[in-house]
Amino acid sequence: MRIYEKYFARQVYLTFVFILFAFSGLFFFFDLINELNSVGHGNYKFGYAVLRVGLQAPSRLYEIIPVAALISAIYVFAQMAASSEFTIFRVSGLATGQALRSLLKIGVPLVLLTYLIGEVVGPYTDQLSERVRLEALGSAVSTNFQSGVWVKDTLTARLDGEQVTRFVNVGKLQPDATITDVRIYEFDKQFKLSNVRIAKSGTYQPPGHWLLKDVTDTELVSVPPPPNQPTDALAPVYRASQSALPEYSLRSELTPQILSVLLVSPDRMSMFNLFRYIQHLQENHQDTQRYEIALWRKLLYPFAVFVMLVLSLPFAYLHTRAGVVGVKVFGGIMLGMSFQLVNTLFSHIGNLSSWPAPLTAATPALIYLALGLIGLKWVDRH
User: Fold this and answer.
1) What is the overall mean pLDDT for the chain?
2) Domains of the chain: which residue ranges?
3) pTM of the entire structure?
4) Which residues cross the membrane (predicted)?
5) How far apart are CA 251 and CA 217, in angstroms?
6) Residue 348 pLDDT greater than 70, yes or no
């Protein structure tokens, strides 16, 4: 790196670290206040609340990094403009395009840091945070339905290749990924109910098996109608045979990673888990719009750091009389907050309107990138 690039990078990184931890402390305080509502229930004490909020900190860092990059760069450039340092750089031959390229180089480590936190650290600590809370409360995860969560599981038999369709009802998902109050309704290729299994609990045994315990297995066989009577498709007759089993190994495409979407919202899942869950939904012919948007947002969000840095560069060309440093920093905060709001708004609108997921995820960044380039061109001319 050139001397002026090292100088820019040192100033931006030092300010970035300070702003990042300042915002993190602020969000930690607000999250802790929100978590106090659960303190006192079960074994959930204040120490667990602090631990839970601390484990959520990496996800907060992931959300804050682009905004912190914007504010730190604006602050540095506003200080340089106020002391005429940037004017000296320009007189020495620093062109606008050259300054932009140098600034984007500074953003590369921040983009990599965002990917690291968003893909490795954040998803793991978020799941761990939910498990700490659930275990302390002595609770389990289920959906808003009183019957629990319903999952479709399509399986191809290994021997004859016949496709089996199951609808799995999980009453509760424990923090350790153990499932309880399980009901499995199995249909043949004609979509006729062929088997019903009810189990008290189940644990995953890789690869691709669930060990169900205390199982009641009910097999249904169609009974042909008596001679000279037509078959009534609306009122089929079955012969049921029931057996009780202490254990039953069930082959299934469902995994704890797929069920773990109940512990963490799609925006806080890793791209790998999102991709696997989208594949599962597609194989079962279910809607994937929400998760595709979340996947593309995870893929493109780290590049928002570049967009924020482009937005910050025009502030270096504003002279001191155009506004004090504090006003410029406040403007940077408003820009960063508006980007987060527009990004969230487009996700909801894209989900409701069934817009293409890549377009939904990329549009906010493209809008702000265009604003940054327009602003940079305007200040360069004036």
Assistant:
1) 83
2) 3-138+290-381, 149-257
3) 0.74
4) 12-30, 64-82, 103-124, 299-317, 329-349, 355-376
5) 15
6) yes
